[in-house]
Amino acid sequence: MSARMISAFVRSCIVTLRAFWRITKQLFHETTGALFAVFAGYGGYIVWKEWKRGWSVWLMAIGAAYALMMAAFAFGSFRRAKRVR
Questions:
Q1: Is the distance from CB of 27 to CB of 84 less than 8 angstroms?
Q2: Which residues contact 81 (CB under 8 A, 6 or more apart)?
Q3: Can you tell me the distance from the alpha carbon of 59 to that of 57, in angstroms, rounded to the nearest whole number?
Q4: CA distance 74 to 79
Q5: Residue pLDDT, tens place only, 7-30
Q6: Rounded Cα–Cα distance for residues 76 and 40 (Å)
Q7: Residue 7 CB-half CA count within 13 A
Q8: Which whole-number Å values give the CA distances from 57 to 39, 61, 68, in the listed order?
Q9: What b/e sequence results for 18-47 when a residue is b if at least 16 CB atoms lie within 10 Å of its CB, and e otherwise?
């Protein structure tokens, strides 16, 4: 093999690995955002269920804070996935 062919092969491997790394980072952020969205939905469901039962206000407040926090994490994760370059 000539030196130019080896150099071209190494460069193509680097470009391919960069593309795979970018795809992996984006997929990680999207998956994480989806899981946080599921957790936020579950927190909202728990708050609604406790509200129907008429239980403690503190339990509903903690559940609402949890749901809002998870929704913020989901939003941030999807936003990072969009910014991956």
A1: no
A2: 26, 29, 30, 33
A3: 5
A4: 8
A5: 999 999 999 999 999 999 999 999
A6: 13
A7: 3
A8: 20, 6, 16
A9: eeeeeeeebeebbebbeebbebbeebbebb
> Are 66 and 76 spatial neighbours (Cβ–Cβ below 8 Å)?
no
The model's pTM: 0.77
Report residue 49's pLDDT band, with 50, 70 and 90 as the boundaries. confident
Tokens representing 23?
Answer: 């795809």
Give the pair of three-digit tokens for residue 20.
Answer: 């795979």
69-82: per-residue pLDDT in tens?
999 999 999 888 87
CA angle, 72 then 74 then 77, to 5°: 110
